[in-house]
Write the C-alpha cells for this entry.
Amino acid sequence: MLAAAPLLVLAGLSTGVLGTSYFLTDNIRGSQFLSAFTHQAIPDPTHGRVNYVSQATALERNLTYASGDTLILRADSTQVLDPFGPGRDSFRLQSNKVYNEHVAVWNIRHMPQGCGTTNGNDCYTNSSTFGCGVIAPRATSFGPSFNAIGGGWYAMERSGTYIKIWHWQRDDTNLPMDIRIGSPLIDTSNWGTPVADFPDTDCNMATYFSPQRMIINLTFCGDLAGHNYPSDGCSGICEGEYIIGDYVNQNPSAFEDAYFDIAWLKIYQ
Ligand SMILES: *[C@@H]1O[C@H](CO)[C@@H](O)[C@H](O)[C@H]1NC(C)=O
Ligand SMILES: *[C@@H]1O[C@H](CO)[C@@H](O)[C@H](O)[C@H]1NC(C)=O
Ligand SMILES: *[C@@H]1O[C@H](CO)[C@@H](O)[C@H](O)[C@H]1NC(C)=O
C-alpha cells in the first residue's frame, strides 16, 4: 500500500506530460517576426484583389512595422489602383520553421477589418492553397468587436489526434493562468472548452500529420471573402479578383483598419 501511492502519482503525472503539456520553444515578438517569417511576394492562391509585397518593400513603405512588442502588418490605404493593374499591396508571411505537434498562442491587439477582408484566421498550411479557417461563435472573436476591446488571444493545439482552437478576449477572466503569467510550461487540459475541436474522426488528420508552416496574410475579395462581401455593408460586389463597383481599387482609405497588430506569438512543443 505504502509503495503503491507514489507510483500512482507518477503515473498520473506522466499521462499529463505526454498528453497535453508542452514547453515553450519559440517566443516571437517585434522584430523577431522579421527573421522567423518570410514575406512572400507571390500571387494569391485564393485569387484576391491583392499584391503581396516583399519584406524590403513592406518595411520601406511602413506596411510592415516591427519594434518592441509590436508587429504591425497592413495593407496599403493610400493608393487608387488601376483596375487592370496589380491588386492592393498587402502581406503574406510564412514561418521559416515547420511544426508538427505543437501549441501556438497569439496575442493580438487588432485584426484587419473593412470591406472585402476575410475574418482574420491563423491559417496553418503545408501547401500554398490549403488553409483551415476558423469560425468562432462569439462576436468578440473577430472584426470591430474584437478590436474595440483591445483584441485578445488565440491558441491552437495540434496533437496527434486532434486540433483544438481557443479564443479569449482581452478582459477574459478565463484566460488560463499559464498564458497569463507567461509560463514556459503549459497544460491545455486546463484551458476549458475550445471554440473549435476537430478530432481525427471528423477530419482527415493525414492532412495535418505532415509538418506545417504558419501563414499570416490578408487578401481582399477572392475565393473566400467574396461571398461575405455584400453582407459587410459595403458597396460593390466581390467577384473573384474583380470588384463590381471597383471598391478595392477606388477607395484606399477604406483599408485604414485593414491591419494586424500582434503583440507576440509563442510556440510550445
Ligand atoms: C510606421 O508605422 C508605425 C506603426 O503604425 C508608426 O508608429 C510609425 O510612426 C510609422 N512610421 C512612419 C515613418 O510613418
Ligand atoms: C509538406 O509535406 C510534405 C510531406 O507530406 C513534405 O515533403 C514537404 O516538405 C512539406 N512542405 C513544407 C513546406 O513544409
Ligand atoms: C490567407 O490566405 C489563405 C489562402 O492562402 C486564405 O484562405 C485566407 O482567407 C487568407 N486570410 C486572410 C485573413 O485574408
About this structure: The domain at 27-268 is CATH 2.60.120.200 (Jelly Rolls). Helices lie at 4-19, 32-36, 55-60, 143-148, 177-180, 205-209, 222-225, 247-250. Residues 24 and 244 are 47 Å apart (CA to CA).
